[in-house]
Amino acid sequence: MFQVISAQVLSTTSLAVGWLGYVPLLVWAASRTRWVELVTDRRRQHLLFGTVFCLFALWLVRRDFDTGVSYHFIGMTAVTLLLDWPLAVLGGFLAQLGLLALGRQDLAAIGVNGLLLVGLPVLITEVCAILVERAQPRNLFVYIFCSGFFPAALTVLICVPVALGVLWLDGRFAMPEWLSDFIGYLWLMMFPEAFINGMVISALVVFCPEWLETFNRTRYLQAPWKDDER
To answer: Most exposed: 46, 156, 177, 189, by fewest CB within 10 Å?
Structure first.
């Protein structure tokens, strides 16, 4: 779960820094995307646009407050594992544009929210996925929990305090009275985020493992008796 920040509670400096960080990230993601494969593979196109639509719909399920922040689930862990990080970044940006078209996102704040809502979650998930892949586990539950559940929970643990830190530095947002009990609320936000992403990854591993760009089917789904033959 993450808080989307409106432009009214952000300083001009934060808005500018957000765009200066988000635009290069989008350019880098676009340069790392395999466009020829995407254009020629209709299945991959459907997967991308279907994922963007689901992410957009997930972000519409939110709670808006008069203070200038909105809370909703992130979902970028599952998107990153499904599309790999370059398309995940671009897909998150497309979902942001959808929110902008509906008036649910401020244009000036897309940069800051993009870094916090897209960039940072993708980075956390990608690092966890790389560490898991380096260990080369053969148990698919390691992939589900260490690449799905855990990164999603870690994303909330990192992104929400960072967002609050940005608001605190700008000094335009009235911090809630329950901030002293923030750690307790943080645990309550971590579990549903981890559950949603973990369940999506679990379902994909069982029913459509070929959809997951970061899932090594050769290793995880290898017949168990083949290990005994070595």
So the answer is: 177
Contact 163, 179 (CB under 8 A): no
| Cβ pair 161, 3 in contact under 8 A | no
User: Which residues on adjacent β-strands are paired with residue 86?
Assistant: none
Alpha helices in the chain (DSSP H): 12-32, 35-40, 42-60, 76-83, 85-101, 110-114, 120-135, 140-143, 150-170, 182-207, 217-220, 225-228
Between the CA of residue 229 and those of 124, 140, 178, what are the distances in Å? 37, 20, 59
| Angle between helical axes of 12-32 and 85-101 (0-180°, round to 10) | 130
Residues 45/87, Cβ–Cβ less than 8 Å: no
Instruction: Report the chain (230 residues): mean pLDDT per 10 consecutive residues.
Output: 82 95 97 94 94 96 85 94 96 97 93 96 96 91 94 94 90 72 79 95 93 89 56
Is the CB of residue 52 less than 8 Å from the CB of residue 93?
A: no
Q: Which domains does the chain have, with CATH numbers?
A: 2-223 (1.10.1760.20)
Tell me the pTM: 0.92
